[in-house]
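Per your request, structure below.
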């Protein structure tokens, strides 16, 4: 069992992200996973630094901890060849500590390129082509490509790490989980759904299975619920809606009448370790073996201390390794 710490680029600026990653490494986390956004979900979150230079800084600011995108969309804002080049460079800078997490993306981030926002079927087709390109470039087996959506013309990565970065694919449903098995080397999800694991395995997937688990540690349950509602109420809309809304104003409108209780049903809140451990257990029981903990809100120091002192020793199959 591996435990990760989520670097929420929507809630923290670049310098704070680097600082938080250092503290996570000291506390014994196995990996840090950074979101790759052009916009926060809500104005209250207030940040959206580019993930890639932050990852470069992390490669030099840390020594042991794994680095990961969770996740990057390689189909609209970025051409997949650029993502392959970035992944290879990070593999070198980090000493083979980098994992490339990829997904089909959200309109919130990808529409800024001005190419429109396709339907879900085309998004999956684009991701499938991007996975072919990225995998081929990272292994040095592909230089030219002509697909329906992407082209390569004598492309080559001149600097590649000794170990190809592992590619994991985000899945919100069985179809995407099967794609992760066919063209990726691992799976990442945000829901404790055994059907995603089953679809991944039935399609031949045998690699790591990552899950993001949102929680809000605070001195009281009431404080945690207020914080989770303030920063994380966007998550109540669910992926079918989250993928389609274009800006923070839309998410504000969609969540205007969401009560704190509704957010607390998705985010474990308060000082009780048992409550947070129960949330983690649901994902372990579903079949995930890499748990990425997302602390909602500004109190990252308090959470990291809570993790090191209380949570890590109590999670089955895992002891802190700081």
């Amino acid at each position: 069992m591996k435990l990760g710490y989520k670097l929420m680029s929507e809630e923290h600026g670049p310098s704070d992200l680097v600082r938080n990653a250092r503290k996570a490494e000291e506390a014994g986390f196995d990996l840090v996973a950074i979101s790759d956004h052009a916009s926060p979900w809500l104005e209250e979150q207030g940040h959206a630094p580019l993930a890639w230079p932050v990852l470069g800084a992390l490669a030099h600011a840390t020594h042991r901890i794994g680095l990961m995108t969770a996740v990057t969309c390689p189909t609209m804002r970025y051409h997949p060849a650029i993502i392959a080049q970035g992944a290879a460079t990070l593999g070198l800078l980090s000493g083979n500590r980098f994992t490339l997490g990829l997904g089909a993306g959200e309109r919130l981030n990808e529409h800024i390129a001005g190419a429109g926002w396709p339907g879900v079927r085309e998004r999956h087709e684009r991701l499938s082509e991007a996975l072919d390109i990225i995998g081929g470039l990272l292994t040095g087996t592909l230089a030219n490509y002509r697909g329906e959506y992407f082209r390569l013309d004598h492309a080559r990565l001149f600097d590649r790490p000794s170990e190809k970065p592992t590619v994991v694919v985000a899945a919100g449903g069985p179809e995407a989980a099967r794609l992760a098995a066919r063209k990726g080397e691992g799976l990442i999800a945000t829901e404790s759904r055994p059907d995603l694991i089953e679809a991944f395995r039935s399609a031949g997937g045998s690699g790591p299975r990552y899950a993001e688990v949102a929680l809000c540690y605070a001195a009281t349950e009431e404080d945690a619920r207020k914080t989770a509602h303030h920063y994380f109420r966007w998550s109540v809309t669910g992926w079918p809606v989250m993928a389609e809304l274009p800006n923070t104003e839309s998410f504000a409108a969609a969540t205007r009448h969401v009560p704190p209780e509704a957010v607390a049903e998705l985010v474990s809140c308060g000082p009780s370790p048992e409550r947070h451990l129960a949330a983690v257990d649901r994902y372990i029981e579903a079949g995930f073996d890499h748990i990425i903990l997302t602390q909602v809100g500004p109190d990252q120091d308090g959470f990291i201390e809570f993790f090191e002192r209380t949570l890590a020793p109590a999670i089955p199959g895992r002891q802190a390794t700081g």
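The chain has a mean pLDDT of 97.

Regards,
D.
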